[in-house]
């Protein structure tokens, strides 16, 4: 059987892979192919995750309306399990010509545990092994598929996870509560001191002042950049990269600014790198996640294109929106810096909850999100208010408050990239209203992403230069 869908305007024919067809036929399971879409009840959609430990592998099935809590699972089965390595999973799927993990333990040959709430649904939708295509089955047939599996209660309803998108004034207090909740009395004082970070370096303060001065000269920017030899070397590398393709050799910082990068780009790049250097990239990260700088560069590039597509009379400053893209995930660094042991736990939960947003996972585990922490620190450091707002409300498609274009642009860029498989979460479609507020059509947004992805190799090179800084 074949099902036709439409992806980015291009008709695509989806069908259940032969390996799954054989398994279902052998078990006499009736099913109907259904294109995945936002209207399907998440409580009926079966999320499959393959875990392992020193004992062996375990397939865990639960509804997409729930979060898989690894701590709760450990209490239930007496085993501390994490997601199987990405290359191991890819090998298992390739053996059966599958692209996603279906909720059938016979495919992996593993034992299986499933959430009891799945049996309470009138119909269930399991992955077909092909992205975007689900198989509709009855609860009775679902039980037949899992005749040797165990059942239990271990999921946390996503609806029970409360976090604020619209109240930023209490973020500092919320962060303090989270620190106190996750530290012992012995080390609590040290972490509270960590939150009260020292003032920014003088060079960074000057860069912030440059951002607000449209008449800043090349000589003034050069004098600040040259006080930091590492930063100066980095700017020379950027200006000499294939992305900018200079016609002749770049010999000095002034050369890089005047001939290739320009004052605005230099200030944005230098400011972004200087801020991120204050915390550093964490050594741990979720498997198969997009590297920090790669995500930042892609997001900034899409935002730049979206900004230029906006009507001139409502277009915000391109440099500031680009900087919002570079720094949108800054709270990720702060999260790792303030909660090192618990950051690892967040990474493991991101690996097994691909359907949930990182904000939901962080709120469940810590009671605070990276967006709240990042915005709080930027305000503490005296960063421009447009940037603070962009970081704080980047996942709220309904935000219409002060400086709304900045978080709206970040929200659209992240949503469009997520729809192309770049990013974490369910990838729910963006509402029409956010495009209307920006004065950009959905098709124009998709065209911007297409153009950015055409330069993917060059953007990866650019991200690599950031990572080596």
UniProtKB/TrEMBL annotation:
Domain HDOD, which positions?
197-397
Task: Tell me the Pfam families matching this sequence.
Answer: HDOD (PF08668), tRNA_edit (PF04073)
Return one GO MF term: aminoacyl-tRNA deacylase activity
Q: Which domain of life is it from?
A: Bacteria
Q: Which Gene3D superfamilies match?
A: Hypothetical protein af1432 (1.10.3210.10), YbaK/aminoacyl-tRNA synthetase-associated domain (3.90.960.10)
Q: Which PANTHER family match?
A: PTHR33525, RIBONUCLEASE Y (PTHR33525:SF3)
Protein's recorded name: HDOD domain-containing protein
State the organism of origin: Pseudomonas helleri
């Amino acid at each position: 059987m074949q099902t036709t869908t439409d992806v980015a305007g291009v008709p695509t024919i989806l069908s259940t892979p032969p390996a799954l067809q054989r398994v279902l036929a052998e078990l006499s399971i009736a099913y109907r192919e259904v294109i995945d879409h936002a209207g399907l009840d998440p409580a009926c959609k079966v999320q499959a995750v393959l875990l392992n430990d020193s004992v062996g592998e375990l397939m865990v099935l639960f509804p997409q309306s729930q979060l898989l809590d690894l701590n709760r699972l450990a209490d239930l089965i007496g085993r501390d399990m994490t997601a199987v390595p990405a290359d191991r999973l890819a090998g298992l799927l390739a053996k059966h010509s599958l692209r996603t993990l279906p909720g059938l333990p016979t495919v992996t040959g593993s034992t299986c545990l499933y959430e009891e709430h799945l049996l309470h649904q009138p119909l269930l939708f399991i992955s077909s092994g092909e992205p975007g295509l689900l198989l509709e089955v009855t609860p009775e047939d679902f039980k037949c598929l899992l005749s040797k599996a165990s059942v239990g209660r271990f999921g946390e309803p996503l609806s029970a996870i409360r976090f604020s998108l619209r109240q930023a004034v209490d973020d500092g207090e919320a962060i303090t509560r989270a620190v106190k909740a996750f530290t012992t009395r012995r080390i609590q004082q040290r972490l509270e001191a960590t939150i009260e970070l020292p003032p920014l370096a003088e060079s960074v303060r000057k860069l912030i002042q440059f951002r607000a001065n449209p008449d800043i000269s090349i000589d003034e920017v050069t004098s600040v950049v040259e006080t930091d030899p590492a930063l100066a070397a980095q700017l020379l590398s950027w200006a000499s990269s294939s992305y900018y393709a200079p016609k002749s050799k770049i010999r000095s910082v002034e050369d890089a600014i005047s001939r290739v990068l320009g004052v605005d780009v230099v200030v944005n790049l230098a400011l972004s790198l200087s801020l991120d250097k204050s915390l550093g990239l964490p050594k741990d990260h979720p498997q198969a996640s997009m590297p920090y700088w790669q995500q930042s560069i892609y997001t900034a590039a899409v935002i730049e294109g979206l900004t230029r597509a906006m009507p001139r009379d409502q277009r915000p400053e391109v440099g500031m929106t680009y900087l919002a893209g570079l720094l949108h995930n800054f709270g990720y660094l702060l999260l790792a810096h303030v909660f090192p042991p618990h950051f690892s736990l967040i990474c493991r939960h991101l690996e097994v909850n691909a359907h949930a947003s990182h904000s939901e996972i962080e709120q469940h585990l810590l009671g605070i999100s990276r967006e709240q922490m990042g915005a709080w620190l930027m305000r503490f450091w005296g960063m421009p208010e447009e940037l603070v707002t962009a970081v704080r409300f980047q996942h709220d498609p309904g935000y219409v408050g002060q400086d709304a274009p900045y978080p709206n642009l970040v929200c659209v860029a992240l949503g469009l990239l997520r729809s192309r498989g770049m990013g974490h979460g369910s990838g729910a479609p963006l509402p029409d209203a956010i495009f209307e507020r920006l004065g950009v059509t959905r098709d124009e947004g998709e065209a911007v992403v297409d153009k950015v992805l055409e330069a993917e190799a060059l953007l990866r090179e650019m991200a690599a230069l950031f990572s080596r800084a």
